[in-house]
Design brief:
about 210 residues, alpha/beta, TIM Barrel, two-stranded antiparallel sheet, about 30% helix
């Protein structure tokens, strides 16, 4: 299986420009409270500049279903990624395929993931690290062994502390359909943190190995 790549937390046209020239399959726009957060108007501009074959994923934590559906339309989202506080009934009302995000802590987290696979509209499961008070974007890995008990029919997106140095090991251990990288694809210049073209090139190279 060819593992695909998602770069999450895109905020600028500069980032879009170099991603358009790389073998990237998905990018993520964060609409949840975060230093990577953007609004629908910004996402619309970025989405319009993105290469057409790259899928646009919107990441949500607290927004209402009405807000999510409005942003799907305005920003041209292909996929919605939700974390926490979204019930089976709410997910069924989302007007795009849904990736259901779960912070993996223990066997109960895996049970939750296995149940969510059957929800209407859910087309993927995003497994991320558990850090109290955070939903994704932790920059930390978790015990990948737990994922051996996830259903075989899950479309699995692996997140949580992935970077150019550990991405190869992660793929060998988990064999996910998609690897989801955010902080591991960033660098800081002065006070500005943004995606690093060099790190993303290295990530792509490691995944393609």
């Amino acid at each position: 299986m060819h593992t695909k790549i998602k770069i999450c937390g895109i905020k600028s046209l500069e980032e879009i420009e170099f991603i358009n020239h790389m073998d990237i399959d998905y990018i993520g726009f964060v609409f949840a409270e975060s230093r990577r957060q953007i609004d629908a108007a910004q996402a619309k501009v970025l989405s319009a500049a993105l290469r057409k074959d790259i899928k646009r994923v919107g990441v949500f934590v607290q927004k209402s279903i009405e807000e999510i559906n409005t942003i799907i339309d305005k920003a041209g989202l292909d996929i919605v990624q939700v974390h926490k506080n979204y019930t089976r009934e709410m997910i069924a009302q989302i007007e795009a395929p849904v990736w259901y995000g779960i912070s993996i802590k223990d066997a109960d987290s895996i049970d939750e993931a296995n149940q969510a696979i059957a929800y209407k509209n859910v087309s993927g499961i995003v497994t991320d690290s558990y850090v109290k008070g955070m939903e994704g974007g932790t920059g930390q890995t978790f015990n990948w062994e737990l994922l051996k008990n996830i259903r075989n029919d899950a479309f699995l997106i692996l997140a949580g502390g992935l970077n150019p140095d550990n991405i190869g090991e992660a793929i060998k251990a988990v064999n996910p359909h998609v690897v989801d990288i955010s902080s591991g694809a960033e660098h800081t210049i002065g006070t500005i943190t943004m995606k690093s073209e060099e790190k993303i090139r290295k990530l792509v190279s490691e995944v393609k190995k």
